[in-house]
Amino acid sequence: MHAYHDQPRRRTVVVGGGFSGTLTATRLLQFADTPMEICLLERDDGSRYGGIAFGETGTTWDHMLNIQAGRITFGRERPEDFLEWANEEADRTGWPQRWKYHVFGVSCVVPRRIYGQYLKERLHGAAADAQPGVELTLLHGEAIDLTPRGDGFVLKYTPADPEATAATLNADHVVLATGHLEPVYRPFYHRVQGSARFVADPYAAGARAVFDALDPDAPVLIVGSALSAFDTVVSLVGAGHRGQITIVSRGGHMHGTYPADHQHDIWSVRRPPFLDDETLTAGSVVAGVRAEYLHLRETAGVGCDEGVFAERVMKAWEPYVIELLQRLPPGDVRMLLAGAAPAVEPPGGTAPAGGSPGAHLPRCGGRRTWSARRRRRPPCGEPLLRGPDAPG
Ligand SMILES: Cc1cc2nc3c(=O)[nH]c(=O)nc-3n(C[C@H](O)[C@H](O)[C@H](O)COP(=O)(O)OP(=O)(O)OC[C@H]3O[C@@H](n4cnc5c(N)ncnc54)[C@H](O)[C@@H]3O)c2cc1C
């Protein structure tokens, strides 16, 4: 058997330094027990650590995570890790006044870029604590080719430095963590593509400069009414926009609004009993989810509008999702994802009155904040948007 230092150093290249790439690299640094170089290759420095969702390129301080502070820990073995980091360790030097002295509680909303900073600091912490011979290398460039060679791979990439020519890297293992696909380009884009007033991707580098440069009273048209539309409104309002914003929706869909007095409580509910069945199938999961949802409505009452109730139940069930995915045969998981989405949507009808299910965990420690989040609009009195399909 080789002594630790006699072992050859392997190289693992992680392509894409966003959320998944940063998490993968951190875990490798924590668990590697033989010498290893972990190279994290990212093409956009502003997306490093957080990617589109949590990086600096794609977010402002007004873009919020859609999961509460008590639920976004880095590792399942330390559920309190994010809160400890945010309240005790985070470097708040560059934080705006609104967040600088904020005390994060379990139910708080969190700016997405703070989460990116958390991922960054945990990655570098893991690199500092790694075994001797286990090292992190950050690379700035875009992967353009990957070929198998011998037992490993050769990765070709274009370094960010415009003077540099394409570089190659030999790797024993390669992890592709390149994230979201490019946005879909609609056929009519070619007519407006050259215009300085057209933004195809609101998360792209340069998009915020367009929002900042915009005449604050100019009318703005947003094509599409889903989550990115709300992020775009938040960016525009943050950039000082006062003019009319019109949202066009092909399907007439518009996300709901939290009630004005909404608090982001996290509920604790019992473990859904169907999980105790020895064998799970897609059918038993659908039936079990329906039965338990109805049970919660009937026994514990709603106490808030039906959409909020459903969201709270879904979030309360999050701890069981991994068990479910591990126990279900992959074919049944695919069947559920493809065909059974309505099983977890709230049934129609009015919400029964009464208390909320389970115990409520502590609320936000600091002042109340609203969330312009991925799933719902902020619970402000006046709607931010007025469009043909906007409620109110
Ligand atoms: C706008 C937005 C908001 C979201 N908000 C939430 C939220 O609030 N809560 C939540 O749970 N989830 C949210 N999500 C989902 C979240 O993004 C994903 O769960 C997760 O962050 C995706 O991580 P990823 O590593 O796959 O992709 P990313 O984090 O996007 O990382 C991919 C990285 O790969 C890089 N890359 C791509 N190609 C190459 C290449 N060839 N060479 C080098 N680098 C490359 C990209 O620049 C990018 O940084 C959101 C998603 C979006 C788009």
* Low-confidence blocks of residues: 344-392
> What is the name of the CATH class of one domain?
Alpha Beta
Strand order of the largest sheet: 5-4-3-2-1-6
* Count of individual helical segments: 12
**CATH topology (fold) name of one domain:** FAD/NAD(P)-binding domain
Task: Kindly state the percentage of residues in helix.
Answer: 25-40%
In CATH, the architecture of one domain is 3-Layer(bba) Sandwich
Q: What is the average of the pLDDT values?
A: 83
Structural class: alpha/beta
Oligomer: single chain
Question: Count of DSSP E strands?
Answer: 8
Distance between the termini: 72 Å
β-sheet strand percentage: 5-15%
Shape: globular
Largest sheet, described in full? 6 strands, mixed
> What is the ordering of alpha helices and beta strands?
EHEHHHHEEEEHHEHEHHHH
- C-alpha-based Rg, rounded: 23 Å
* CATH superfamily grouping of one domain: FAD/NAD(P)-binding domain
Question: Hetero groups bound?
Answer: flavin-adenine dinucleotide
Characterise this structure:
- Among the domains are: 9-63 and 111-176, FAD/NAD(P)-binding domain; 273-344, no CATH class.
- 30% of the residues lie in helices and 14% in strands.
- It contains twelve helices and eight strands.
- The chain is globular, with a radius of gyration of 23 Å.
- The termini are far apart.
- Residues 344-392 have low confidence and may be disordered.
- Bound molecules: flavin-adenine dinucleotide (FAD).
- The site of flavin-adenine dinucleotide (FAD) has 29 residues, from α1, β2, α2 and β3.
- The site of flavin-adenine dinucleotide has 29 residues, from α1, β2, α2 and β3.
